[in-house]
Specification:
Elements (H helix, E strand, L loop, with lengths): L1 H14 L4 E4 L5 E7 L5 E7 L2 E6 L5 E5 L7 E4 L5 E6 L2 E6 L5 E6 H5 L8 E10 L2 E8 L2 E8 L9 E4 L16 E5 L3 E6 L4 E6 L8 E8 L5 E8 L17 E6 L5 E6 L11 E6 L5 E6 L4 E6 L8 E5 L9 E2 L5 E6 L2 E6 L5
């Protein structure tokens, strides 16, 4: 009976123009997604230690791999034929059609490191070509950019990015992986991945008092980066003359000059003490910026090409997901996942 009611609700929402909802197995806790290059296949990562491949739009399960470590990251190869998954200091490769193993790279062993997970972890994966990948990794809380050949050898020097914020909440790579963004407490940086060269801007003077950088996203063309800021002044009990941010905010920076392009605030009714943005994501055409908040558990959509200051509130509360919003490659769908629920928003209905 419960399943029939849930199906009826889903059909009603779809008929009324609401989002589509797909469900994971009982006991699953979804936390990340990845679209295939054609947008017709979706990878879903969920606890405990599972990567699942689903066909869209119906959500049929194509294959599933279980028994991996939690905190997985995954992506498709540029041709959509292969899936790379990070688990326990290794890169695992699977056939995108049937999930059959295609090999693995023991990253820790290849580098000769004397540390094991969780002291070494892969936070983000990006294919640069069919035979090369870029990884954003963390060793003992220090962030690194690593480039690996598909045959398991390191390509070039490992680039240290220092001790940087909360990189597991970032969308750091451009569409082709040629650039990666990072941010510290007062520094914004951009890496030329092929050359391993970094450009940095000190943004301290451009941030409000008590600013805390909580997340970032690089646009797919690499021309701009958005950072989420939280007001941390509530942690101080003594009065201070500096102005408060009065809620979380987003700043967009030009990656060529480091100048601020625009500022965007959260909705006025979504400002509990200590609220922060935890995930940001650009649409492929750069028109939209999706943002999720921590305490209000909200998903907001900013139209960067429009004149409306207030974002559109897609959802908020316990039925909303704050994990990594993700646009499909053609920008037609915005996806989120948490608990057993995958939600797919039709961007053609957004203004």
């Amino acid at each position: 009976m419960k399943r029939l009611i849930a199906t009826a609700v889903l059909l009603l929402l779809t008929a009324c123009g609401g989002p589509r909802v797909l469900h994971l197995p009982w006991g699953a806790e979804g936390y990340a997604l990845a679209f295939a290059p054609d947008g017709k296949v979706l990878l879903v990562l969920y606890s405990p230690g599972t990567v699942e491949c689903r066909d869209l739009p119906g959500g049929r399960v194509r294959w599933r791999v279980e028994g991996l470590w939690d905190g997985l990251r995954a992506t498709f190869s540029p041709d959509g034929q292969e899936v790379a998954v990070s688990s326990e200091g290794r890169l695992l490769f699977y056939d995108a059609d049937d999930g059959e193993p295609r090999g693995e790279i023991d990253l820790v062993a290849q580098q000769g490191l004397d540390i094991k997970p969780p002291l070494y972890s892969v936070l983000h994966i990006q294919y640069l070509s069919a035979d090369r990948l870029a990884l954003l990794t963390q060793h003992r809380n220090i962030l690194f950019l690593e480039t690996w050949n598909r045959d398991g050898s390191l390509a070039g020097e490992v680039v240290s990015l220092g001790d940087r914020g909360n990189p597991d909440w970032w969308h750091p790579f451009s569409r082709d992986g040629s650039q990666a963004a990072y941010v510290g407490y007062d520094t914004l940086g951009l890496v030329d991945v092929a050359a391993g060269e970094c450009r940095e801007w000190n943004i301290q003077d451009q941030l409000p008092a008590y600013r805390h950088v909580s997340t970032l996203a690089l646009s797919l063309d690499g021309d701009e980066v958005a950072v989420g800021l939280a007001d941390m002044s509530y942690l101080w009990s003594t009065p201070d003359p500096h102005p408060r941010i009065a809620g979380p905010m987003i700043l967009r920076f030009d990656t060529r000059t480091g100048e601020i392009l625009s500022r965007h605030d959260a909705p006025d009714d979504a400002l509990p003490v200590g609220e922060m943005f935890v995930s940001l994501a650009y649409s492929p055409d750069g028109r939209f910026l999706a943002a999720t908040t921590l305490n209000t558990n909200g998903l907001f959509l900013y139209n960067l090409a429009g004149t409306k200051a207030e974002p559109q509130v897609l959802c908020r509360g316990e039925d909303c997901c704050r994990h990594f919003p993700l646009f499909s490659p053609d920008g037609s769908t915005l996806a989120t996942v948490c608990g057993r629920r995958i939600t797919l928003w039709n961007m053609g209905e957004q203004k």
